[in-house]
Write a structure and sequence with these properties.
46% helix, five-stranded mixed beta sheet, six-stranded mixed beta sheet, 981 residues, Coagulation Factor XIII, Chain A, domain 1, 39 helices
Amino acid sequence: MPTPNRTRLNPSQRQLLMCVVGLGVLMLADTAYLLLHRLAVAVGWISLSGPEFVLPKFYQSMILSHTGIGVLLVILASAFVEWHLPQVWRVHRRRAITTGLLTVVFGGTLLITGLFILSEANSRDNAWAWWMHVLCAALVLPVYIAHRQVSIWKPSLLSYRVVPAAIVLLTLLAVVANQGMSESEDAATQIAQVGTGSGSRARNIGGSSTEFVPANFVPHDSPFFPAATTTTTGGFLPSRIITRRGLPEQEMLDQELRDRGFAIEHTVGSKECARCHAAIVAQWEDSAHRFASFNNPFYEATINDLRASDGGSNAELAAHIEHFSRLARDAGARQGLEGREGMVKSKWCSGCHDPALMLAGKMSGPIDRRTPQAQAGLTCLACHAIDHIHNNTGNGNYNIADEQEDPYLFADVDHGLLQLFHDTSLKARPTVHKRQMLKPFFRSAEFCATCHKVSLDTRVNDYRWLRGQNEYDNWHDSGVALNASRTFYLPPFKRVCQDCHMPPERAVEGDVSARSGFVRSHRFIAVNTALPFLRGDTTTVERIETFLQDEKLRVDIFALHQADGRIVRNLDAGSVVTTGEQIELDVVVRNQGVGHTFPGGTNDSNEGWLELTVRGADGQLLAINGALGDDGHVDPAAHFYKAVLVDKHSEAIHKRNAQAIVAPVYVRTIGPGTADVAHYSLTMPSTQQQLTIEARLLWRKFDRTYTEFAYRANPEGFAAFDDVPELPVTQIDMHRVHLQVESSPSSHKALDRSSQVVDATATDAGRAGASDWVRYNDYGIGLLLQGDTRSAALAFAEVARLAPERVDGERNLARVALRDGDLTRAWEHLNRCQQIAPGDPQTAWFWGVAHQKAGNYVDAEKAYRHVLQRFPEDRAAWRNLGRVLYLDSRHDEALRALGRALRIDPEDRSAHYHRMLVLRALGREQEASAAEEAYEYYQVDESAQTKTRTYRQADADANREAQPIHAHAVPLLRGGPGDGT
């Protein structure tokens, strides 16, 4: 202990110093405990650190006490310094003053950095504050001890024994006190029920090598049937999971629904998150994800149409209804699920659109659209509470971790001082929160596939398995994912869904998760201009249009076929045609920036199309194809990018009634890095003049027929509109060329393959910036995909001439030759490829195909294995490798190769078929029968074409669009032959 006669402190100062020292002892013990907890986390000492998603309550109380003691300690120490400094300053003990001031500086820095961490969060961006806090904490004690050693009043030897002993004792007491319950009673109950319910993550769906069970199978006793969604317990979710607290007042919500049709100003499930993630929540508020449920008038119209229908029945659906009706009656309910087939089937949609309703057990009965749950959409935790993806077959096949809870103190309080304590604990130790809310797979495309890959089967359509929308495989089996050696254009690096749809965005509103001021955008920006239009959100509409126009697709009026058989490509202003001449124009549309097909999603209601216009020198419209009529409908003779689907009665699917789909009449989309060619037949005017021909690629999120259905079926949802809304039409890209119409055929310009695009105005920037070889290549790609191999070969030959240093031209010529079955020509082009780019892994794919067709199975195997070294996820390469190994009687290796293909896509019917052949060759009949059953399950129903034939016979425009190669007649409105104008 200090010697009283050696001190310059008066009794009051000594008492204050003893308080400071006492608080310091408590702070040191608190710090030692916190460091022990961190060590326990690092080494896996669960009894101290707690389970992975739990933060012991005592630990959090120690964080709060650490803050409280630290603030009080600095205040008292500052008071002591102010009181004590004038006395010691006069003594001129330089070392005492220096060490004392350093102690003050370190203490002040500890206070500032500590409070900064608690206000701004202990995040990666704020790591500097954490390390500064740690460094000052490590220095302040030895500096203070040094200060005391050079001071007049030195600590006694007993102090050096008592103080450490007190710190150790207090630390041990803290470790002992740490033991105990870490979960709330509600969460503990959920944990006890993990895996007990029939809708749990741990469910056993059966299946083996001798028994086929579909990869997306859902047991009939799952409460979420027919959705593939599960919860960890297997039961319905407590409200704390999806919608959280802070729900809007019902009266105010009702008023907004009466005025606007759906909740816009009132959000659900995001209030708590916004306290730390203001920018992310603000972005989400404008997103299509937020407006995914009964707050989307279009979806509401469709889902209610399904729910109101008799729904049809099937064995699985009947078993589900019988099972849960019996449970309901056993529980004393008056009514089971009988007669609610449509409501039960609607859960297939709800796993992705209405988790707040479906996972709470609401979708099997009537829905009150006025409830906050119905107006919730996809809330923050609808995605962030997911802890597992079952497989990559989609249909909402995720698991919600309902056994977990908010692990921080006072989680049930939404205001006041206790809420501040909750947020302080979270910001001080956000690791557990991040482990809960940010799984590594959130950054993967497979996470998005849970809802952006769809299939329908008997439990929904009473028919058979059908593929629905599928952005995942369209992306995965493409060059964008660096998984497809067959791609026409291979990007320099891989891109996933989040790169395009969640790009970094400045966190204007502030966000603790921001890195260098940016967060991953939660606008999930894509193509849905309809929803922001309904709510009057012009900013979001403009943002989407900018996104669509940012080098996503390119339109190119590329070739002119003249009446005398000549073809002019790469049109320029010198192109001349004859009055009254019949010509054909080829318009190329290239997908250059969309990572999946354009369009994607629900293409039975999406509407993309080309508009072609011909104008005279005075700007007057002479001809048009693809006009938008006064009734809001697009010219049915237009060149569309969409799908026309029919039901079992050969009626068009126009209500988004996916459960009724039987077959496609046509599906026209443009895959990543590919192109489409639209052919237009025009008759030139009878007078000499210069013509301006313009092609525009237009987009409308919903076609007029579907919009009219939704408006009439759901007037409550469209309360803000007195009539059917006129949805915005976006011009994605356009191209303009000029033709000179002359009376004398002798003035025709000779074929000039090297001519450049003229009129490279702002609207033509895409053509002006595109190399000629690229434009020819795009033209050839579009022709090849239509099956016009002769014309495609001419285009690719021009690619080879214009870019002889590139392998693209020769490789695509080999591709054409293989399509034609001309192996001799294929070998020639492949050998030239080898000279240009020896060992190219993309070219190796075509070597493999050529060798396979020639029966050279060993060489084909070598080629495919070379492909797989560069593209290990190339499903087609694995499939073909399995095929050639089977043909070479290497059956075990063939099974392994086909197994790899099926791990990539368990619904690959071709892989199942070849696996059946291999198993039959091995005499493993039971397994072969299971593989055959899988093949037949996923096989296309060829007999469904009778339904499409009936529709095509009644609709000449759809029949034309269904043909791979067709031309659109564009009659002149005025100025044609025989027209006196």
